[in-house]
Amino acid sequence: MNILVVRTDKLGDFITALPAFYVLKQHNPQNKIIACVAPLNRALAQSCDFIDEVIVDDGGSFWGLVAKLKEAKVDASVTLFSNTRVAIAQFLARIPKRIAPATKIAQIFYTSRVVQRRSEVKMAEFEYNLELTKALFSDISLEYKKPLLEFGDAKEIYDDFCKTNAITKEIVAFHVGFGGSSDANWSLDEYEILIREVAKAGKYQLLLTFGPDEKALYEEMRKRLFDIDAVFYLSLDGVVYFAKLVSNFRLFISTSTGTYHIASLVGTPTMTFFADNLFASAKRWKSVGDEKLQKHFSLPSNKEKKEALLEEVKRALAFSI
To answer: Is the pTM of the predicted complex or chain greater than 0.85?
Structure first.
């Protein structure tokens, strides 16, 4: 059976879809699992051994997308996050069974519509994605391995990185930037306080990571932290290389953004900051990794409460490292 799974939004959102891909493959290894993804997620999708084929929707030619779907000879599709473009494309590609959440006007183009009401946040995003697979196979097991993604050459990549950067200790990493669905973060001043706490302990190698579009932030943090022993890494080597690297870190600290989801996906302990509202909370956006390895904090808007939380995070850091 050729099964198309559609999730064409951002990095973190795509990672919340990966357990659904996995359980569909495990349900019957003879199933051909086809991912329809945004261009930025192509390489990560191709690195998953439970995904057999990748179709990239680059937002360009609509009829080109329809042609790709027809060529894939899809028997059934599960659209985890729908929009009008992917809904109509599947309809015109004549996919016999088309499953999606019962939301937005796009739902009229699907053969099976599942009422989920994700805004009520009764479960996490990845759990809603998993639930949709039951509309295709009612007896499917929703259990998946953790970490969900492992790489045979990850240790070699990490060792080379450490050698290049003269790193001799385990790495505690901070990612101070944010984007995607993340609604809250510490200021750079507050991050500097936390980073200096780790530096003061002297037990681990400090590493600051930055996305390829965060060059200005990279330069700013280098100026701020010129006096401490830290490695500043501007990630220009692609998301798969980053995933291999981060899988060896002792701890990854960030707001709730794509890099957090990567770290959790590959089994790295995380310390993560969420907005203090239900829609952007850890209850909805906790990642797909082992929950025992995830430590979550909600950032309040109240100044006094935020100052108190900063002290709590400093204590948590001291305990963790």
So the answer is: yes
- Per-residue pLDDT of 79-91, as tens digits, reads 999 999 999 999 9
End-to-end CA, the chain: 48
Nearest to 9, CA basis, from 85, 61, 64: 85
Note whether 34 and 281 are within 8 A (CB): no
The label of the residue with tokens 């850890």 reads 282
Instruction: Give the domains, in start order, of the chain with CATH numbers.
Output: 2-133 (3.40.50.2000), 154-320 (3.40.50.2000)
Which pLDDT tens digit goes with each residue over 36-57? 999 999 999 999 999 999 999 9
Buried b (16+ CB within 10 A) or exposed e, 56-71: bbeeeeeeebbebbee
236, exposed or middle or buried, with CB in 10 Å at 0-12, 13-18, 19+? exposed
Query: What does the alpha-carbon distance between residue 235 and residue 91 come to, in Å, rounded to a whole number?
Result: 39
What distance in Å separates the CA atoms of residue 172 and residue 163, rounded to the nearest whole number?
Answer: 16
Rounded to whole angstroms, the Cα distance separating 85 from 65 reads: 9
Quote the tokens at residue 262: 């990567």
Nearest residue to 213 (alpha-carbon basis) of 177, 184, 175, 189: 177
User: Looking at beta carbons, which pairs linking 159-168 to residues 24 or more positions away fall under 8 Å?
Assistant: 161/245, 165/231, 167/205, 167/207, 167/231, 168/205
What are the tokens at 202?
């002297």
